[in-house]
Specification:
By secondary structure, the chain is mainly alpha-helical. It has 13 helices and 2 strands. The chain is about 75% helix and about 0% strand. A two-stranded antiparallel ribbon has the order 1-2. It is globular, with a radius of gyration of 28 Å.
């Protein structure tokens, strides 16, 4: 008769639980700092409102956390239930709040409530019309539970459609971007083209800012002319700017200043990149095998520059090794992309198993989310939605990206579980389900049907 010694043996479930708990704790901390780093890179902690930063950080953190902990097969019920209200209610309200030109918190909240009331009122009108149509139809008898399921399914269908577009772009663009980065000549020509385009955009932003700043001068001139002769002053005949006009003007000024600062910083960074690429092209023909800069830094080199990253090491990396490293990385990522496309086309086949990721490891979800999330950072819709590094992304774009992440993460996780045949709704096999699948099983069953 065996006795329990209190020491975990190999294969002991208590040891596996402790290892999963430790991995979960590490991932919670790492994901938080990852979201914080990205927010610091694109946002501005000193100038942007705390509510905007908190809402964006919350959305990014929850979405990234679900993706990272899904391979551990732990319960994500709390996170998943937080993502949907964040995308549906919190972020749209904070988007309107951040774009408002109000001069007080009350004014901003009022504007946000009015805009969201119009937005959700339109949806409610459409939903009410469809509900009345279903109610009066003699052949349709839908319960409240079925109506709720249809609404959730419609929302997830939009997420799946968006996921297909972003994932398809990322699967092609990520390997291609690294391959193009290994071609110094192509990269330099592309930088020249971007510089010419950015110069036009920068001049347009400066002109727009000057036009916006002329409005307060007009108001001052009107008020000055009206107050020149106090005895002839007639309040009924004077036209002063109303609070509504000032709020509208303030909104235009905020947008113009943000755009002007963004193009100015991007212009400086693009010039530095162009100078660096020109230095690489010039040093490639150097027989001294030592990298020289056209504009050396005024600061003395640190410990790394003196002993590790010397001019000789920099020459071999920039002129020789870097391009081959990028080409090899591009080929590896291309293989991953082909494997994803193959598995997406064959994950319904369980006998035989044709999905490559069903026979491989769970870390492939990181490649999937990289393809999808990086595309979100690359999207540009004129100047309405635009991500710019070095703290130049406006509050509206930050909030909009949080909404996209919240809408993309659930279908992304379900798609990954389908690729590895861990979702019985797709594989039609009785397997031990993950906690995420058990929560979303009913929704996903309607999507597949």
């Amino acid at each position: 008769m065996s006795t329990w010694t209190g020491v975990p043996q190999a294969g002991d479930p208590r040891r596996a639980v402790r290892m999963s708990g430790a991995a979960l704790g590490i991932e919670i901390v790492v994901v938080f700092f990852l979201a914080l780093f990205l927010l610091h890179r694109y946002g501005d902690f000193r100038k942007q409102q705390r509510m905007v930063l908190f809402g964006t950080l919350l959305a990014w953190y929850l979405c990234f956390l679900i993706v990272f902990i899904l391979p551990l097969d732990v319960s994500t019920t709390a996170e998943n239930s937080s993502v949907r209200p964040t995308a549906r209610l919190l972020l749209p309200f904070m988007q309107s709040y951040a774009r408002s030109g109000g001069f007080s918190i009350t004014g901003k909240v009022k504007t946000a409530l009015i805009e969201n009331a119009i937005y959700y009122g339109t949806y409610l009108l459409i939903f009410g019309s469809l509900l009345i149509y279903v109610a009066v139809h003699p052949e349709w008898h839908l319960s409240w539970y079925e109506l709720q399921t249809i609404g959730i399914t419609a929302a997830n269908t939009w997420g799946l459609f968006l996921l297909v577009l972003l994932l398809g772009y990322g699967l092609v663009e990520i390997p291609r971007s690294y391959w193009n980065a290994s071609r110094h000549g192509h990269l330099l020509v592309k930088t020249y083209f971007k510089a010419a385009k950015l110069m036009t955009e920068k001049a347009d932003a400066e002109e727009n800012l000057e036009d916006v700043m002329e409005c307060p001068t007009d108001y001052q001139e009107k008020m000055g002319r009206n107050m020149d002769d106090y005895e002839d002053f007639d309040d009924k005949q004077n036209t002063y700017p109303t609070e509504k006009n000032l709020v509208k003007l303030h909104k235009q000024v905020i947008y113009a200043v943000q755009r002007h600062n963004r193009t100015r910083v991007q212009w400086q960074m693009l010039l530095q990149q162009a100078v660096h690429l020109e230095d690489v092209a010039r040093n490639e023909t150097s027989s001294a095998h030592q990298f020289t800069h056209s504009f050396p830094s005024a600061e003395p080199p640190g410990w790394v520059g003196r002993y590790l990253y010397t001019p000789t090491v920099e020459w071999y990396w920039e002129c020789l090794l870097k391009q081959w490293f990028y080409r090899l990385l591009s080929l590896v990522l291309t293989v991953f992309s082909v494997a994803v496309v193959w598995s997406e086309c064959t994950f319904f086949s369980t006998r035989p198993v044709l999905s490559l990721f069903a026979m491989a490891c769970f870390v492939t979800i990181f490649f999937l989310c990289t393809c999808v999330y990086s595309t979100v950072f690359r999207i540009r819709v004129f100047n309405y939605y635009y991500f710019a590094s070095h703290h130049q992304t406006d509050a509206y774009s930050l909030q909009f990206s949080g909404m996209l992440f919240c809408r993309l993460t659930p279908p992304l996780c379900l798609n990954f579980l389908g690729l590895i045949h861990m979702d019985s709704a797709i594989s039609q096999q009785q397997k031990l389900q993950t906690a995420y699948t058990s929560v979303n099983h009913n929704i996903h069953s309607h999507l597949v049907a």
